[in-house]
Design a protein that fits this description.
This is beta-ketoacyl-[acyl-carrier-protein] synthase III. This protein is an alpha/beta fold. 34% of the residues lie in helices and 24% in strands.
Amino acid sequence: MQVQILGNGAYAPKTILTNHDLEKKIDTSNEWIVARTGIRERHIAAKDEATSDLAVHAARKALEQAGVAPMDVDLVIVATSMPDMFFPSTACIVQEKLGAKNAAAFDLSAACSGFIYALSVGEQYVRSETYRHVLVIGAEVMSRLTNWQDRGTCVLFGDGAGAVLLGPANEGRGILSVHLHTDGALWDLICVPGGAGAIPPSEKVLVECLNTIHMKGSETFKIAVRNLENVALEALHANDMSISDVDWLVPHQANIRILKAVAARLKISKEKMVVNLDRYGNTSAASIPLAFDEAVNDGRIKRGDSILFLAFGGGLTWGAAVVNY
């Protein structure tokens, strides 16, 4: 059985933090941020907004577009690095808020690659006919993992959520393949080292900001570009496709320099690449479904288009998915 995206939705908090706002808080400038990241602004969750709230907004839009009621959802998967709490899973809270009372629910953690990992899991549940309707959500409140005094990372991240509803495919459509990779030896290139089991919460964790994102940017850049190129070629080869067969590349919105480098290596035109990080920043697991939803809604992506999803994140993790939308 083929599995397709029946509906999609996205949500970003109302508060917008611009580069000019950051200029007033830290030693940086709009020109410096744009030149190095491509980001001009990002959305920030309100104090009373949790990851589950963002996820529910996106999920409702996906269900509405698909014409499927919450009670007809069989499984909810939330990919996130910032759950509402250690347990229960954010997916359980989403299930309750959404009214999807018949659905099983669990979280998945693969950092910025989380959406593609969750898409792979959800696709297999539908393909095996275990479930008919699987809701896959990438949702993040990255602002609460951010050290706002570290100009190397605080300029990068934003908050948001994106969702897709998976179900049985009409003939000729569907998720053609998903390709996942991990290199745990490089876990410390992008991580939040403290505040959990290895380094429990303490005064030291707070003082040294160990409960915020730590990233080795220059090392990460080189590895990200190489691995994204390789997994893209792997995915294309698996489907007997060339890059010219791809209508749209929807990459994780990490950094404009990474996106341009990958596009150059793949020899795909910038007109075929969906980019919105200038307005959202890096929303981690939410970035691909956010960008996908935007391109569907503005008419760029149409039914029947061939789409290549690409992601890279902490773990290290990376992956690709080829979708005939």
